[in-house]
């Protein structure tokens, strides 16, 4: 159905102009169906009323220049002219996510035989994952659209980000998690003091219940459900930042982790917007997607040459990527095909090695998702799919402190000794 | 002895000029004894050869202006003209710590009945504590002084910072920890791949062994032992940043946690340097010190009106502050007396409440040290020692993800329910 519908898009007028009165979402003008191209005014819609396709924010950008961006704050709001948020977004207390470091990774490059490699390190965000970006945009849009409560189903990073963002914004949060989640992961969200509901069941059960509630509670914004079109746009800022931090140009290759697939497609969208607006030169780039083998529906579809992504039951240590039925999977396939990239997957053992390699070479302790990306980078180089001479950016989207269990079995003391100089000398060569 | 010696200081020439040839430590000209004023050339000294007093870096600052600082990178190296580091420090790969957020904390201020409150949030550093600052300076100085290995005894944040910084710099690290440290805390340093030695004994045993090794291994820099004078200077950047981020002015009140006491004295030193250099107006400020009651030797001395600090055996959840014999304790007393501040301590239960209060109001999840500071702020307000109308900065020096055990017993789900809308409605009011 997706493929058929996409032909329709080309024949419809893409830019809707119907805007609900009194809604200031900056340059956003409406919502457009990604499949059939139907247009809707800005509001709490997320599925097309015609074909049930996903809705995308449509824009009318004006007056965005390199200088106007560079004059902005050093967080995602410097790109507010390209996001569906009120023009006054910086005046409301928020966590000010983004503008995380783009780290030049010469040691890792040398270890892998590459010429120029960068790590976009989103562990530097306020709650230490890229989710602060998408939640920041969702919260700003949700307030403008009249929502009173910020909510989500989650098993980790998203729950942290929603609970923290709502606390600082002074609005109520309702976070829903599976009741068998480890106490440690519950603590990191519960500490922010919102409502945290433990639901007996799997994450799918929690997700389903959240959708039911979203249908009933008109003033609750479930960031990844009923305000998802706005939320997803937050990931464009990863693309904007990489381009700006490279000195307003695009890298030649990207390696991006895939959960729902949204992040990868939005980084690509961000790049294309910058080209369209004349903020960077139009240069070819290849987008590579990274999955853990234990949850690799997109990689499997890629390797089989399919257009559709067959759902899987996740079984991997990379839990933040463990979405068995990725909503944007088909769009990921499109992007990787269009740009000449690929989708690859790596085993859990390779993920752990990826985390260790990045930590040992660059002093960056990534969560499992970052391990997936680094391990995939290595695998793509080994298979010759990725060019070691081309400038490459890999994305670390979270912090190792949140997934200690992944490396705990394999790293430990070099030696355990009595407290004497002699014992030290015996154990450690100077 | 300390008191007597400090009279001597006033009668000696304070600025030494003897510099070892070929050593470029920027504006640093030598080392001066804090007690007797004796001068020594720059090198791996840390105790006065005359009186065993601690050595401080002496400087000859030239050409440092607001503009020259503002033109620098957005990390501690923008202040390299005020630090004992090579002028080329930015050209060598490093973690680029610092320039963390100064968060305007209106919600917390409202909760406490204050007029203007800021949180200097050092959890945003690369390994999520202020230790990245001091280790960054120690590493830069140690390389210039010819050391080949970066080492430390530690139980947590410092070990993380040393192992990560050495990994990125491509030099060897040797980190020593007590062998009964929790596996999770070992993982967060071991992952960076240096040598990690678990020593059977207490932290004091580890520390003693480290000093022994430092006396034997000439090319090993123990950051907090034989290159401590340089290391300690890194904390000045907290003061510089607060002043710059306030628009080049000083706040009226500060609340700073006390472990060794070094950080508090260096923030004060940073402020005085800025005044001396004409970078900020000379305005009065009060410095308040914060300790956990279970390790509060400085607070006890303060309350008893003593000049000396009597060592204690630490027993508190605020482990990153648990130094029973704080080297800079007497200097902390001096600073708090001179500025009209105070030193106060809070119970472990108050520490936990401090963590929760900051998280709920500002979305910042602090480690126990941050809880100590916030709880002390509250206590000082209640006792009338701190003025609620005066502009105040509190320091959060670490990240809650590293001390989950502190809050784990007291935060949890609001409700645990079956996966049904009805159960949700019963448990959670909309």
From TrEMBL, chains A, B:
Its cofactor is pyridoxal 5'-phosphate. One of its GO terms (molecular function) is threonine deaminase activity. Keywords: Lyase, Pyridoxal phosphate. Gene3D superfamilies: 3.40.50.1100. The modification N6-(pyridoxal phosphate)lysine is found at residue 131. Belongs to the threonine synthase family. The lineage of its organism: Bacteria, Bacillati, Actinomycetota, Actinomycetes, Motilibacterales. It is an enzyme of class 4 (lyase). The keyword Lyase applies. Residues 97-398 form the Tryptophan synthase beta chain-like PALP domain. The keyword Lyase applies. It comes from Vallicoccus soli. This is Threonine synthase. Its EC number is 4.2.3.1. GO terms for biological process: isoleucine biosynthetic process; L-serine catabolic process; L-threonine catabolic process; threonine biosynthetic process.
